[in-house]
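Attaching the record inline, Q. Sequence:
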Amino acid sequence: MSLNEHTAQNAAIAWLQYLGYTHITGNTLDRDLKKVVLETEFKNFLKTTYPNVPETAHNEAFAQFTQHEGMEVAYRNQDFHRKLTQGIDIAWKDAQGNEKARHLYPIDYTHPENNSFIVSDEVSIVGKNSRRTDLLIFINGLPLIVFEFKNPFDSTVGVENAHRQLHNYVLDIPQLFDYNAICIASDGLEALHGMYSSALEWFAPWKSLDGDDTEQKAELQLETLLHGLFPKKTLLDYLQHFIFHEDHNGKIIKKGAKYHQYWGISRAVESSLENIKPNGDGRLGVIWHTQGSGKSISMAILTGILRQRPELKNPTIVIQVDRSDLDQQLYENFVLAKDLVGDVQHAESTDDLRRLLSSDGGGVIFTTIEKFRLKDLENGKEVQHPILSERYNLIVMADEAHRTQYGFESGGFAQNIRRALPNASFIGFTGTPVDGKDADTEQVFGPTIHTYDIKQAVEDGATVPIYFEPKMVPLNIKAKYTQELEEVEEQAEDTTVGVWAAVEDAAGSEDRVKTVAKDILEHFTARTKTLDGKAMVVCMSRRNCVKMYDALTALEDCPEIAVIMTSSPGKDPVSWNTHMRTKDAMEAVKSRFKNPEDPLKMVIVRDMWLTGFDAPCAHTMYVDKIMKGHNLMQAIARVNRVFEGKPNGLVVDFIGISGFLAEATKKYTGSGGAGKPTLDLDAAVELCLEQLSIVKSLVGGFELDTINEMPATEKMKWTTNVLNALLKDDATTEGYLKEERKLSELMAMTNSDERIWEIQEDVAIIQKFREQIRKIKYPPGAQRTKNDRIKDLISKSLESQAIVDLAAMYNLDKIDISIVDDSFQAIVKDKGGENIKIELLRRIINDELKVRMSKNIKKGRKLKDELEKVLGKYHKNSLDSIAAIKHLLDIANEMKEDDKRTKELGLTEDELAFYDLLSANSALLNQSGPIQDLVHTVVASVKKNLQLDWTKKENAKAAIRLAVKKELRGKVPFSELDKLLKEVIEQAEGQYGEWPLLG
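Structure, as predicted:
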């Protein structure tokens, strides 16, 4: 049976055929190998779709669609994509000499059934080098989608190899990528879609068939991708509306929507058409897509689609934001997405906004909500906002719909905007929904249309996980204030009384700032040795920002730092002058910080840049300011952006925000042996055949002929089902791997025998499941390497002025606790958090004991007894959590000491148990040299006599007993020899019982 990359490829073809695609093998296509368009197919489409257009015009259209402007692939691809999605104008003269014109599209987007969909495998293309693509999808003869597959049953290759191959194709056969819309890289298990020019971190799975449910199983990714994105109607919708190019000063970047954006926007379009005034109530709904998951792109795509809907009759879309820094960032993103949204106008003032909204034309207008303020007139202030437009095709799209959206009191911005545009409809985009006592996002904008929370974004790789590291430097404040910290709310800077002022003063005390600054620099220096990137420091006030800047820059080897804050030249001290900047100077600093190569490595902020600011290379945030709720979630999202080589973002807490962070994340998470034994070959063959039937039963049994006759889709389904069953739980997986390993060892011993040749194909299938399990549990490639440089255990202590770091204190830096992990929630916030700490430690110790027990039975039993005793006392409440944790850490430390001792004694790991056993009886030993010498010979004599299943054979045990007896004779009194021998054999059985599979 052949299980290789063609299995996945053939399954993909079968699924596409099920969706109505026509399969034609590559070598039978009617084409010139140097050309990538199926010319006859495309010409037939133009003739059939536009029968009233003369042949000369058809020929001109064909030429326009197949000839692209630009010296580089990026420009040619952009040029073709515009024509693909927006069509072209063709003009000609009829027989009477009258001018005629028609707008032609290369695809009939309205009627998917009027297009031809061909899937073709092994398509050879001659370019700079000759290459053969695994699968190409041609729509009307245009090669729009390319698939590259790698073998799902080969653990040495993964989806990154498929991605690398696609990048080589761009260089070798560039003519294909003039037309390419989507690339798929798959190893049969994973299946990722992306743009031909994108790095692997921008390729993503498609995890939903209809936008309601997500499919998390990696082994179903290819099926979900094909059934989710490739139904003809969905695919054409995606091609027309969800792909665009951005021009970054001459560098073209191509982007495509991820599945959450596609489904969220599609729902928003439906909701808009249903609920827009006058037919609906004008509340179009809320899209909640977490910070960093591409919200601004979603807004731009939705704007583009709504502007094109004929029933909206050239609508005006008002993009309305909370603050000017958000306004600028979003406006820049819209300008980059010009292909989607068209020209964008920016309201520079209240008068400018009123002028723009009073005109009848459609378009996109950007404004901050405060521009809907009441104006000062010569005879006093306006009593109420004037009506600017009574049009119904006005849609207000609010970004980060928060406090200002709820100003419904007289003269409040929310009321003003509704007076100005009485017939407008409203849609809200947010990454951090608000549902406080007087401000419910859904009441203002309508029900939530689509949700994509932090947890899902991290699972999909749309954002990187954020880890939390406590470096609490306690505040020297009165006890009454520490109790009130839970209640403290962020306040304006001129507050001189109350808790906020007390906390600000305490956080800014000279000694404390020096301590924090020193630790920030040490931490950042260590972090950037292994992970290049930038950092943000968040302080309580502008005053504290300046103090932190002075303390950091006074330290040796401090990198370049800038303070980012608003300034008031009339009020601020002269010493702050160096931190004052004009608008242009601030933009220049922003560009420098975003550039990973620029030496500006760190910025200190109070609230600027904590929302609406993206610097993907920033990977660490040092927090020395009390923050809560959506302010906190927006702030920490500055370090969750995907960036090449960045495994995660890190929040380092100096002030004690862990409780607030837990509360906020909960709210925003919706959701081999030495040599082979000598053995009887006949007996081994018999054992091998028996072992095969045991392992076959573990995969539910199968007949080779039946498997070979299955179509590719059935094979994929069968392997998926078997794999699901084997991965049901750890015990099932470990049981299978253990039995499969026995079978493979027996095969290796007996493969010279003809009787074994008949079962080799069966065994090959079984071994391929092992490869898949290993691939899922220990994925290949740098993209998935776990970053173990980050310490993530939680601590919160107000006992000393020193930096408290529980993780470092207990050397538990291998535990990763992401802020979206349930363990984080329990540890830092919920009652019973101690149980989670204890459970984490118990798990670690238990896992270690499992590994160590066979290697040192006596010691393993002792530690297991201790573990059970501690847990027993804790659960009976006779031991408090702190004492229990201390005891568990002592057990963990004892294991570490064993590892240290093994090295110091010059022993191997499996010799230590025998060393402990003999040294416990050292009073009996008549040994002149070190005990290690005797240990080496005893262990060697045991290993020399091991054979398959020796623990079940008395004669095999006797041979080992005799060999060990020879080594001990004369060194142990005769009366004690049998007792010691018994202990040695018991240890050998525990340690080498599975020989040659373990040990």
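Confidence is low (pLDDT under 50) at residues 478-482, 671-679, 780-833. Residues 581 and 610 are 18 Å apart (CA to CA).

More tomorrow.
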